[in-house]
Design brief:
The protein is mainly alpha-helical. It has helices at about 10-15, 15-50. The N and C termini lie far apart (about 50 Å).
Length: about 50
């Protein structure tokens, strides 16, 4: 599997279990990164309001 953000139907159909697990881990890692960034922004915003 290549590092494409979007998979074709053929790529998805031929993906192994290992490929699918890797894709899921990448997806969850992205969610975690986005959520960490959200929390940091929220922390920064709340901190500014307390001053």
């Amino acid at each position: 599997m290549k590092g494409n953000a979007v998979l074709s139907k053929d790529e998805l159909a031929s993906a192994t279990r290992e490929d699918m697990m890797h894709l899921f881990q990448v997806f969850v890692g992205g969610l975690m990164g986005d959520f960490a960034q959200y929390l940091q922004q929220k922390k920064d915003t709340n901190h500014d309001e307390e001053k």
